Amino acid sequence: MSTELNTQSQTKSTSPIKRMCVVYHSAYGHTARVAQAIVDGANQVENIDANLISVEHMDHYKWEVLDQADVLVFGSPTYMGSVTGQFKLFMDATSSRWINRSWSGKLAAGFANSGGLSGDKLAALQQVCLFAMQHGMVWSGLPLMSQGHETTDLNRLASFLGLMTQSDNLPVAQTPPSGDIETAHWFGRHLAQLAQRM
Ligand SMILES: Cc1cc2nc3c(=O)[nH]c(=O)nc-3n(C[C@H](O)[C@H](O)[C@H](O)COP(=O)(O)O)c2cc1C
C-alpha cells in the first residue's frame, strides 16, 4: 500500500518522531517502486514517519511536508545522463528555500534508476548530491559493500554516493530486481537509524 502523504504521525513510543520524505519522479513506476522500498525500510525503524512525495503536482501541502521533514531523500529516473525534466523543475522550484537556507542542516540522500547497468546514472546522482549541498544539507551515501553483481545481490551496482537501481522494459512487478529493492529497503532503514542518531 502506498504511503504517499500519510503524514499523520503515528506515535510508536514517547521519543520524538523523525520525519522522512522520499521525493521522487517516476514516469513508468520503476523509480516509484524503489522510492516505496526506501519508505518501507525506514518505517521499520521506531519513531520514524516516512512518506512518499511525487514531484508532480506540487502544492502548498506537499511543500509544507518537505519543510517539516528531518530527512529528504531525492530520486529520479536517468534521462540522457541527467535527472528528468520534471525532477529539475522541482529542484528549480526550491529556489526560495535555497536563498533563505530553509533546508540547511537536514539529512539528505539520493537514488537514481536507469535502463542501463551504468546508463550514466552516476551523473544524475551527483546532480542530486550537489543540489543537496547547495541547500546546505548533510549528505549520506550508501555505506553498504557490494555483495556481488547478480540481480539478487545487495548493492549489485556497487554505488556508494547513493542508491543505484536498474530496471528493464518490463512490468514494475518484475523489475528492478529483488536485490535492488532489498538494497533500497536497507538504505531506508540505514537513513532512518542515522536520523535517530542526529
Ligand atoms: C527520454 C529518456 C531518456 C533516457 N535516458 C537514459 C539514459 O541516459 N540512461 C539509461 O540507462 N536509461 C535511460 N532511459 C531509461 C530510463 O532511465 C528508465 O526507463 C527509467 O529509469 C524508468 O524509470 P520509471 O519507470 O520510474 O520512469 C531513458 C528513458 C527516456 C524516456
Task: Tell me what the structure shows.
With 198 residues, this protein is an alpha/beta fold. It has one domain (18-197): 3-Layer(aba) Sandwich (Rossmann fold). Helix content is 35%, strand content 18%. The chain has 6 helices and 6 strands. It has helices spanning 30-42, 60-68, 85-93, 95-99, 121-134, 178-197; strands spanning 18-24, 48-54, 71-77, 107-114, 138-139, 163-166. Strands 1, 2, 3, 4, 5 and 6 form a 6-stranded parallel β-sheet that branches. Helix 1 (30-42) links the parallel strand 1 (18-24) and strand 2. The longest helix has 20 residues, at 178-197. The protein is globular. The two termini are 29 Å apart. The model is unreliable at 6-12 (pLDDT under 50). Flavin mononucleotide is lined by residues 26-32, 77-81, 113-116, 119-120, 167.
Topology overview:
Blueprint: E1 18-24, H1 30-42, E2 48-54, H2 60-68, E3 71-77, H3 85-93, H4 95-99, E4 107-114, H5 121-134, E5 138-139, E6 163-166, H6 178-197
Parallel strand pairs: 1-2, 1-3, 3-4, 4-5, 4-6
The protein binds flavin mononucleotide.
